[in-house]
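In this section we walk through a basic example: taking a raw amino acid sequence and producing a predicted 3D structure, encoded as discrete structure tokens. The instruction is simple. Fold the sequence below.
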Amino acid sequence: MLWAMRTRGVLTLYGKAASIAAFRKIDPATSLMAHCRMDANTLLAPIADDMRAIDALIREELNSDVVLINQLGEHIIGAGGKRLRPALVALAAKALACESPHIVTGAAIIEFIHTATLLHDDVVDESALRRGRETANALWGNAASVLTGDFLYSRAFQMMVRLDSMPVMQLLAETTNAIAEGEVLQLMNIGDPEVTEARYMDVIDRKTARLFGAATQMAAIIAGAEDKTAQALHDYGRALGVAFQLIDDALDYSGSATELGKNVGDDLAEGKPTLPLIQVLKHGTGAAQQRVRNAIENSSAEELSAIVEDVQDCGALDYTVAQAHAARDRAIAALDALPAGPARDHLAALAAFSVSRSA
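The resulting token sequence is shown next.
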């Protein structure tokens, strides 16, 4: 049995069974939260000092003598959010006992790349709400948002140069290119009810999972870990990214606007054929399939309530969550290549937590 307790806000894992094998024994239908009562703060407690240093560097590097960049950048960075991607850099470094100051820089780079994609995404999607607040494009307009996103990308590459690591440069150059390809592929999928599961999984791999994989692999590169370890961390992060995105897909039809920080049904209103909808188009009743087809083709959430029922009735929600659990299991399995210890256990716990969240 996996035992856990919280002491002064820090998760303490103890007992001989506090291992990767213990995480694997958890029933996929039961969240780790029910076993350990973990929350994000508890999971990230071992890297609290690192996260403070990362946040400080983010704000320092965000500074520009162009006032609008400062205002807009602070709006989105200051909104908080999970900071999951930079946290992965720090946690992976802990698992490898790496104390290099470059870890903080690398984590900030990852967050800048992610934030730039958010700014661009909100413009493309015409989103008005993110993390419970108005989006930057809603407040300052599309042009300012796109250009500030470009500033964040270029600042990230300035910081990469300072790391003076060609392997890191190559990894992040390939990753940002894949993200851009994923964005274009998603754009091509909008309004198309013929999108297959394979096409959709390709989008989330490029658009979301690659940056997760880059975050953990970069820590291995900075730590000077052997190739096998770097690949294992990449595989962990990439699988975690898939799990994370699939849960986001499920929450769009089962969550609440208050918890999600965005409007429920946003994907439907944008004509995005995500996995729950793709499953309805394969397994739903004739009426359900027609409703979803019309909604995707017309980018309409008018029949959201009926479609939410369709998603649940045909098992599409269960299927999406099951695929997220499978990705979680792949992530945890990849950790076998890492040295045993509390940091590795926290990476495993984070993978389990990613599929049990409500926002």
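Looking at the output, two observations stand out. DSSP finds 19 helices and four strands in the chain. Residues 197-223 form the longest helix (27 residues). In the next section we compare this with other chains.
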